[in-house]
Amino acid sequence: MSLVSSLSFPKPLHMPVSRGRRHTLPASEFRSLSPEDAISVFEIEREAFISVSGECPLLLDEVRHFLTLCPELSLGWFEEGRLVAFIIGSLWDSERLTMDALTIHKPHGMTVHIHVLAVHRTFRQQGKGSILMWRYLQYLRCLPYVRRAVLMCEDFLVPFYQKSGFKVQGPSQITVGPLAFIEMCYPVRGHAYMRRNSGY
To answer: Is the pTM for the entire model greater than 0.70?
Structure first.
Protein backbone atom coordinates (compact mmCIF):
# COMPACT_ATOMS: atom_id res chain seq x y z
CA MET A 1 0.00 0.00 0.00
CA SER A 2 1.38 3.41 -0.90
CA LEU A 3 1.80 6.14 1.68
CA VAL A 4 -0.80 8.32 -0.02
CA SER A 5 -3.45 5.60 -0.09
CA SER A 6 -2.87 4.77 3.59
CA LEU A 7 -3.57 8.33 4.75
CA SER A 8 -7.11 9.43 5.46
CA PHE A 9 -8.18 12.83 4.19
CA PRO A 10 -11.18 14.78 5.46
CA LYS A 11 -14.02 15.02 2.96
CA PRO A 12 -14.76 18.48 1.52
CA LEU A 13 -17.84 19.98 3.10
CA HIS A 14 -19.79 20.80 -0.06
CA MET A 15 -18.71 18.05 -2.53
CA PRO A 16 -21.48 17.61 -5.12
CA VAL A 17 -22.57 13.99 -5.59
CA SER A 18 -22.92 12.89 -9.19
CA ARG A 19 -26.10 10.91 -9.79
CA GLY A 20 -25.57 10.61 -13.53
CA ARG A 21 -24.85 7.42 -15.44
CA ARG A 22 -21.29 6.22 -14.91
CA HIS A 23 -19.11 5.68 -17.94
CA THR A 24 -18.36 1.95 -17.88
CA LEU A 25 -16.58 1.35 -21.20
CA PRO A 26 -12.78 1.70 -21.25
CA ALA A 27 -11.48 4.39 -23.59
CA SER A 28 -9.19 1.86 -25.28
CA GLU A 29 -9.20 -1.92 -24.92
CA PHE A 30 -7.33 -4.78 -26.59
CA ARG A 31 -8.82 -8.27 -26.43
CA SER A 32 -9.21 -11.50 -28.34
CA LEU A 33 -12.17 -11.58 -30.70
CA SER A 34 -15.12 -13.97 -30.54
CA PRO A 35 -17.62 -15.22 -33.14
CA GLU A 36 -19.97 -12.47 -31.92
CA ASP A 37 -17.48 -9.92 -33.31
CA ALA A 38 -17.52 -11.51 -36.79
CA ILE A 39 -19.92 -9.09 -38.46
CA SER A 40 -18.04 -6.00 -37.21
CA VAL A 41 -14.77 -7.61 -38.33
CA PHE A 42 -16.10 -8.42 -41.78
CA GLU A 43 -17.56 -4.94 -42.33
CA ILE A 44 -14.17 -3.33 -41.60
CA GLU A 45 -12.31 -5.92 -43.68
CA ARG A 46 -14.65 -5.61 -46.67
CA GLU A 47 -14.39 -1.82 -46.76
CA ALA A 48 -10.60 -1.91 -46.33
CA PHE A 49 -9.80 -4.51 -48.98
CA ILE A 50 -12.54 -4.34 -51.63
CA SER A 51 -11.67 -0.71 -52.39
CA VAL A 52 -7.97 -1.55 -52.83
CA SER A 53 -7.72 -5.06 -54.29
CA GLY A 54 -11.29 -6.16 -54.94
CA GLU A 55 -10.83 -9.24 -52.73
CA CYS A 56 -11.37 -9.92 -49.02
CA PRO A 57 -8.75 -12.12 -47.32
CA LEU A 58 -11.52 -13.82 -45.34
CA LEU A 59 -15.21 -14.24 -46.13
CA LEU A 60 -17.72 -13.85 -43.28
CA ASP A 61 -18.03 -17.63 -42.79
CA GLU A 62 -14.23 -17.90 -42.68
CA VAL A 63 -14.03 -15.11 -40.09
CA ARG A 64 -16.53 -17.02 -37.93
CA HIS A 65 -14.62 -20.25 -38.57
CA PHE A 66 -11.29 -18.92 -37.27
CA LEU A 67 -12.85 -16.97 -34.38
CA THR A 68 -14.50 -20.22 -33.28
CA LEU A 69 -11.46 -22.49 -33.69
CA CYS A 70 -8.67 -20.19 -32.50
CA PRO A 71 -9.98 -16.93 -30.99
CA GLU A 72 -6.77 -16.67 -28.94
CA LEU A 73 -4.89 -15.93 -32.17
CA SER A 74 -6.96 -12.82 -32.86
CA LEU A 75 -6.65 -9.36 -31.40
CA GLY A 76 -9.16 -6.54 -31.56
CA TRP A 77 -8.68 -2.88 -30.65
CA PHE A 78 -11.82 -1.32 -29.22
CA GLU A 79 -12.41 2.39 -28.61
CA GLU A 80 -15.28 2.97 -26.18
CA GLY A 81 -16.69 -0.43 -27.06
CA ARG A 82 -16.39 -0.03 -30.84
CA LEU A 83 -14.06 -2.24 -32.88
CA VAL A 84 -11.59 -0.01 -34.73
CA ALA A 85 -8.84 -2.44 -35.80
CA PHE A 86 -8.14 -6.16 -35.67
CA ILE A 87 -5.83 -9.04 -36.57
CA ILE A 88 -6.94 -12.62 -37.22
CA GLY A 89 -4.47 -15.50 -37.20
CA SER A 90 -4.45 -19.29 -37.17
CA LEU A 91 -1.82 -22.01 -36.76
CA TRP A 92 0.06 -23.54 -39.67
CA ASP A 93 2.52 -26.43 -39.73
CA SER A 94 4.64 -26.02 -42.88
CA GLU A 95 7.60 -23.86 -43.86
CA ARG A 96 5.65 -21.97 -46.56
CA LEU A 97 1.98 -21.08 -46.95
CA THR A 98 -0.17 -23.01 -49.42
CA MET A 99 -3.79 -22.57 -50.52
CA ASP A 100 -4.86 -24.77 -47.58
CA ALA A 101 -3.47 -22.16 -45.18
CA LEU A 102 -6.24 -19.78 -46.26
CA THR A 103 -8.96 -21.92 -44.69
CA ILE A 104 -7.37 -24.53 -42.40
CA HIS A 105 -6.25 -24.17 -38.78
CA LYS A 106 -3.54 -26.69 -37.79
CA PRO A 107 -3.87 -26.99 -33.98
CA HIS A 108 -0.42 -28.53 -33.54
CA GLY A 109 1.38 -26.03 -35.77
CA MET A 110 4.07 -23.72 -34.43
CA THR A 111 3.64 -20.99 -37.05
CA VAL A 112 0.98 -18.29 -36.75
CA HIS A 113 -0.45 -17.40 -40.14
CA ILE A 114 -1.70 -13.80 -39.96
CA HIS A 115 -4.65 -13.77 -42.33
CA VAL A 116 -5.63 -10.15 -42.06
CA LEU A 117 -4.89 -6.85 -40.33
CA ALA A 118 -7.44 -4.11 -40.97
CA VAL A 119 -8.25 -0.69 -39.51
CA HIS A 120 -11.62 1.07 -39.68
CA ARG A 121 -11.56 3.85 -42.28
CA THR A 122 -12.15 6.65 -39.77
CA PHE A 123 -9.12 5.54 -37.71
CA ARG A 124 -6.56 5.16 -40.51
CA GLN A 125 -3.41 7.25 -40.88
CA GLN A 126 -3.06 7.34 -37.08
CA GLY A 127 -0.49 4.57 -36.69
CA LYS A 128 -3.06 2.13 -35.30
CA GLY A 129 -2.07 -0.69 -37.66
CA SER A 130 1.57 -0.54 -36.53
CA ILE A 131 0.63 -0.33 -32.85
CA LEU A 132 -1.78 -3.25 -33.13
CA MET A 133 0.80 -5.40 -34.92
CA TRP A 134 3.41 -4.58 -32.25
CA ARG A 135 1.00 -5.61 -29.49
CA TYR A 136 0.06 -8.78 -31.36
CA LEU A 137 3.69 -9.84 -31.85
CA GLN A 138 4.42 -9.16 -28.16
CA TYR A 139 1.42 -11.30 -27.26
CA LEU A 140 2.67 -14.15 -29.49
CA ARG A 141 5.92 -14.16 -27.48
CA CYS A 142 3.82 -15.26 -24.48
CA LEU A 143 2.55 -18.36 -26.30
CA PRO A 144 5.20 -21.06 -25.76
CA TYR A 145 4.21 -23.12 -28.82
CA VAL A 146 4.61 -20.27 -31.33
CA ARG A 147 7.97 -20.10 -33.13
CA ARG A 148 7.24 -17.63 -35.91
CA ALA A 149 4.55 -15.57 -37.61
CA VAL A 150 4.01 -15.48 -41.38
CA LEU A 151 1.81 -13.47 -43.70
CA MET A 152 1.40 -12.70 -47.35
CA CYS A 153 0.81 -9.24 -48.74
CA GLU A 154 0.91 -7.23 -51.93
CA ASP A 155 4.14 -5.48 -52.93
CA PHE A 156 3.07 -2.03 -51.74
CA LEU A 157 2.56 -3.31 -48.16
CA VAL A 158 6.04 -4.86 -47.81
CA PRO A 159 7.64 -1.70 -46.28
CA PHE A 160 4.84 -1.47 -43.69
CA TYR A 161 5.48 -5.01 -42.45
CA GLN A 162 9.25 -4.62 -42.63
CA LYS A 163 8.93 -1.77 -40.11
CA SER A 164 7.34 -4.31 -37.74
CA GLY A 165 10.29 -6.67 -38.17
CA PHE A 166 9.02 -9.01 -40.89
CA LYS A 167 11.51 -10.30 -43.47
CA VAL A 168 10.72 -11.11 -47.09
CA GLN A 169 10.69 -14.86 -47.79
CA GLY A 170 10.01 -14.47 -51.50
CA PRO A 171 7.00 -14.73 -53.81
CA SER A 172 4.05 -16.58 -52.27
CA GLN A 173 2.83 -19.81 -53.82
CA ILE A 174 -0.70 -18.43 -53.38
CA THR A 175 -2.48 -16.30 -55.96
CA VAL A 176 -6.04 -15.00 -55.75
CA GLY A 177 -7.39 -14.18 -59.20
CA PRO A 178 -4.90 -11.75 -60.76
CA LEU A 179 -3.32 -10.89 -57.39
CA ALA A 180 0.18 -12.10 -56.53
CA PHE A 181 1.67 -11.85 -53.04
CA ILE A 182 4.97 -11.65 -51.18
CA GLU A 183 5.41 -14.01 -48.23
CA MET A 184 6.97 -12.52 -45.09
CA CYS A 185 8.16 -14.02 -41.80
CA TYR A 186 8.73 -12.76 -38.25
CA PRO A 187 10.81 -14.94 -35.86
CA VAL A 188 8.86 -15.01 -32.60
CA ARG A 189 11.37 -17.47 -31.07
CA GLY A 190 14.88 -16.66 -32.31
CA HIS A 191 18.36 -17.83 -31.37
CA ALA A 192 18.33 -15.82 -28.14
CA TYR A 193 15.22 -17.69 -27.00
CA MET A 194 16.78 -21.04 -27.87
CA ARG A 195 19.98 -20.24 -25.95
CA ARG A 196 18.04 -18.94 -22.96
CA ASN A 197 15.98 -22.13 -22.75
CA SER A 198 18.59 -24.71 -23.75
CA GLY A 199 20.09 -25.17 -20.27
CA TYR A 200 23.54 -23.81 -21.26
So the answer is: yes
